Amino acid sequence: MSEAGRSKRARRSGASGRRSEWLAILWLSAKGYRLLARRFGGKGGEIDLIMTRGRTVAFVEVKARGRIEDAMAAITPAKRRLIEARVRQWLARNAWAMEHHLRADAVFIAPWRAPRHMPAVFDLVL
Questions:
Q1: For the chain, which has fewer Cβ within 10 Å, the N-terminal or C-terminal residue?
Q2: Residue 64 in 3-state DSSP?
Q3: % pLDDT > 90, the chain
Q4: Among positive and negative, which fits the CA dihedral 53, 58, 61, 65?
């Protein structure tokens, strides 16, 4: 669907999501992480960010809500399964990463609060 065909709310939400992802990239980069991929996947779901630091590859979900607590609650069991499926897909294309520590992280963002990075927010079941 073209951008013009999307509702005003959907366009605003998409722009907010992209800003949140850039904020998360900056936040994690300041902590020594390096971006490997952004928005990996496609229809049916995606991994927001794939970052690396040392021997760790972090698959990062970025959640922005009005309150940090609401952002934290937004990673549901269904979202976890979707992320794990995309991780398997990414690993099939990047076998080198199997020798690294693989982790599911999250960055939670709320207005007027510093982003909150949570390493290993859930265990990956691959």
A1: N
A2: strand
A3: 75
A4: negative
CA 97 from centroid of its chain's CA atoms: 17
C-alpha to C-alpha distance for 116 and 73, rounded to whole angstroms = 14
Rounded Cα distance, 101 and 28, in Å: 17
Strands 56-64 and 101-109: parallel
How is residue 15 written in tokens? 């722009």
Domains along the sequence of the chain with CATH: 3-122 (3.40.1350.10)
Q: What is the pTM of this model?
A: 0.87
Angle 4-64-25 (CA atoms, 0-180°, nearest 5)?
90
- Total Cβ atoms within 10 A of residue 42: 9
Query: What is the tens place of the pLDDT at every residue in 61-111?
Result: 999 999 888 988 999 999 999 999 999 999 999 999 999 999 999 999 999
Question: Bridge partners of 37?
Answer: 50
